[in-house]
Amino acid sequence: MPLEAIHAAADRREHGMTPEDPAALETRLGYPAQCPHGDPIPKPDGSVTLLEAVALSEQPIGRPVVIVHVEDEPPELFRQIAADGARRPAGLTLLTAVCLMLFSVLHNPCSTTIWTIYKETGSPKWTLLGALLPLSLAFAVTFAVAQIARLWG
Predict the structure, then answer these.
(1) Spatial contact of 41 and 33, defined as CB atoms under 8 Å apart
(2) Are 67 and 98 spatial neighbours (Cβ–Cβ below 8 Å)?
(3) Can you tell me the mean pLDDT for 103-129?
(4) What string of DSSP letters covers 45-92?
(5) Could you tell me the residue ranges of all domains in the chain?
(6) Which of 26, 78, 92, 129 supports an S-S bond with 72, CB 3.0-4.6 Å?
(7) Rounded to whole angstroms, how far apart are CA atoms 68 and 39?
(8) Beta carbons of 55 and 62 less than 8 angstroms apart
(9) Neighbours of 127 (CB within 10 A)
(10) For 36, which DSSP code?
């Protein structure tokens, strides 16, 4: 179901609830402390448990983080975040960081190198090989590292 449809359906149901419905829904969901976006859900007494969090943009590069809140406004931004795969909670592990780093380093020579290969050889075949060989190597290495790390636990 598209995100817009989910939000519209939830909005309609929210405004059509009886006073007993929220308690039944909470019971069915296991008394969640936050909504799927990470916003706190008030307790029956009206109190709210706030999470301490820091914006992702303020975190040093390479530090593992856990996404605790995904902003749903404006809708265009939320669609892009969801399309990029960010979900809450989503931890970025050391393995993810290592594989991302390896892939980034190995995946492709810069466009200048590819252009130079073409100009020096005059061959689209060698140019394509020069671009695809590092990409294949990057996939193989990151896959192998991830599998070995998962086997070692």
Answers:
(1) yes
(2) no
(3) 88
(4) TS---PPP---GGGSPTT---EE------SHHHHHHHHHTT--SSEE-
(5) 95-152
(6) 78
(7) 9
(8) no
(9) 19
(10) T
pLDDT in tens, 6-60: 667 777 777 888 888 888 888 888 888 777 667 788 877 888 877 777 777 777 7
**Do β-strands 90-91 and 66-67 pair in parallel, antiparallel, or remain unpaired?**
antiparallel
DSSP collapsed to 3 states, 113-148: HHHHHHHHHCCHHHHHHHHHHHHHHHHHHHHHHHHH
The owner of tokens 């970025």 is 92
Tokens found for residue 92: 């970025």
Phi, psi values for residue 110, rounded to 5°: -65, 160
Is pLDDT larger for residue 147 or for residue 23?
147
Contacts of 36 (CB under 8 A, 6+ apart): 88
Question: Cα(48)–Cα(38) distance, rounded to whole angstroms?
Answer: 12
Q: Give phi and psi for 90, each to the nearest 5.
A: -135, 110
Helix axes 124-152, 94-106, angle to 10 degrees: 160
Residue identified by tokens 């009206």 is 46
Token code pair at residue 79: 């669609």
- Looking at residue 36, its amino acid is P
